[in-house]
Specification:
alpha/beta, Rossmann fold, 6-stranded parallel sheet, 9 helices, 20% strand, elongated
């Protein structure tokens, strides 16, 4: 059994490519599960102990981690669980983009301190997991948040004191033109983004920002020492086929 740790578009693309392989997919949220209709999908967040039990109970012999580049705990736990259970671990990691301009921060704490001092309208596209950092900011009324239109995200926004008029609840992907429209409509001067890669819509955000004179503020991708990693889906498929033939 191949266990695909999903929840991203990359994971859905990999599942589609693997076709008739014996697969079980896990996602951390019900929303992620809904995007994988018709498949053997389990929706539950797991720590290392739960992951080890999952591997044993589902007779997993290969773990394919295609979780989000910023899901650090998920990847760490999957690596350790794989080691403990003696199964191989493969990581699909989106390639990072290279571009000029903007300012980068390696931690959310540093980024939040920088944002506190900004003047002008700000668009945050970090998702809902970091919303607590914005609670009680003096310039919070100048900040807009683009996030998934799901209850969990909206609840987190409410707890952080974010008003409905500051929320752009919509699911991507977004084209450059769509981003331009958002920047212009809300008079955005800064866009806060992750190094999510082309699949995550980063390129379209940055191109639109360059065209509109918007400054990118970037939360750097965390560095993890993966046992094996590729950003090429063809290479992932080839590797999986080798395991199935062995």
């Amino acid at each position: 059994m191949i266990w695909i740790i999903g929840g991203t578009k990359d994971s859905r693309d990999i599942v589609d490519r693997l076709g008739g392989s014996e697969i079980i997919v896990s996602t951390a949220t019900e929303y992620g599960k809904k995007l994988l209709k018709g498949l053997n999908v389990v929706s539950e967040p797991m720590e290392q102990v739960e992951m080890q039990e999952f591997i044993r109970s589902n007779r997993v012999n290969l773990v394919l981690d295609a979780s989000h580049p910023y899901a650090v705990n998920v990847s760490h736990n999957a690596i350790e669980a794989s080691k403990a259970e003696g199964v191989d671990y493969l990581r699909f990691e989106r390639e990072m983009l290279t571009y000029d301009g903007g300012v980068k921060f390696t931690s959310m704490e540093e980024l939040a301190e920088y944002i506190k001092e900004l003047e002008g309208k700000i668009l945050v596209t970090l998702g809902s997991n970091n919303l607590s950092y914005f609670k009680d900011m003096d310039n919070l009324e100048n900040i807009y948040f683009r996030m998934l239109p799901v209850k969990e995200s909206l609840d987190k926004a409410e707890k952080a004191g974010i008003l409905p008029k500051q929320i752009i609840a919509i699911q991507g992907p977004f084209s450059k033109e769509f981003n331009i429209a958002i920047y212009k409509n809300y008079e955005i001067k800064y866009v806060i983004t992750k190094e999510s890669g082309a699949t995550g819509g980063e390129l379209e955000k940055i191109k639109a920002a360059a065209e509109c004179g918007v400054k990118p503020v970037i939360l750097s991708r965390p560095e993890i020492d993966y046992p094996w990693k590729t950003g090429d889906i063809d290479q992932i498929i080839k590797k999986v086929m080798e395991y199935e033939e062995a």
